[in-house]
Amino acid sequence: MKVALFSLMMNLPNAVTGESWTAQQKFRNVIRQAVLAERLGFDAYGVGERHGAPFLSSSPPVVLTAIAAQTSRIRLLTTVTVLSILDPVRVAEDYATLDHLSGGRLEMIIGKGNDPRHYQLFGITEEEQWESLAERYRLLKRLWSEEKVTWEGKYRPPLEQVTTYPRPCQKSIPVWHGSASSTLSTELAAQFGEPIFSSNSFHPQAKYKALIDHYRERLAHYGHDPARAVVGAGSGSLYLGSTAEEAIRRYRPYYSAFSVTESAKHNKSPFTSLEDVIANGPALIGSSEQVIEKILNYHEAFGHQVLSISVDGLTESEQEEQLQRFAEEVLPVLKQEIPSTIWENDPVWSHENKAAIHRIH
């Protein structure tokens, strides 16, 4: 199994210490997270997209470019790019630029997003979100794969013989489809035969498994081999302790703080307590053995090859502690027990380029 660390860059006062970070301190923290993740052997780092407090992640390509300058191996993900509200021409240009600056390490996860504030901000209604996402994605694919594109649609002015520059660094920038709540996302992914990434964050396993099963069924409908389906999945919160009791005790203040945020309320999680979300949801809170057991259980249900985790909201020392423990106690077992066919090849930069980067830093 491959493992990605990700951040939505939620910047709240720390639930334990009361410490508040400035925006610049949070940006620096995210870059340090990514550098540490690469050093510890994680496979990817992702930055989500939100447009409003308490999130600072309104511009993932800019943040990922800063991370690209400080790293040389780790894959760079968007978790997710809210394509339902963005201009595909601008997206094609920005992310192709990032693809070059990272040496071909970019993988995009697209979605409609789950923060209702961005619809009014960018001029579409919530009812239009799926239609908008599908139209914009079809245009983005053409802009990256074709030159002199002529196009007309509903959500941006027509194009006449347009070629976007730069062209992507990779022959084809990999695109995943973020899946959280609707078969419309899995349907779009299946049409193109492209991978999905289940959010797997706020609800019981059965809800997300149903969407993944639907994806595999629709892959077959569109003539793709469901046995070759590529699936990623999130995991809720992460907190490892020497015992389950220690992990629960140390994480409880964070759970209490996160559960009353507006974003948590919007997701309408059915879980009523920390113990409930640990027992019946995706949260990875407990001893290393318990966390490994839960991940293997979810893998049996989902068949996913990539797992994403997050340590946002913790103190920086706790972030480092948790990532170190995960890398030492959990990651080796996952890589041994769960085979993965993706990300086996180096990005397009040569080893000479990597050596040059190392000398610079």
Automatic annotation (TrEMBL):
Gene3D superfamilies given in the database record: Luciferase-like domain
Q: Provide a GO CC annotation, any one.
A: cytosol
- Any Pfam family from its record, for instance, is Bac_luciferase
Single Gene Ontology MF annotation: oxidoreductase activity, acting on paired donors, with incorporation or reduction of molecular oxygen
Annotated ranges, domain Luciferase-like? 10-304
Keyword annotations from UniProtKB, A to Z? Monooxygenase, Oxidoreductase
For this protein, the record's PANTHER family field holds: BLR5498 PROTEIN (PTHR30137:SF8), LUCIFERASE-LIKE MONOOXYGENASE (PTHR30137)
The name under which this protein is listed is Luciferase-like monooxygenase
Q: State the taxonomy lineage.
A: Bacteria, Bacillati, Bacillota, Bacilli, Bacillales
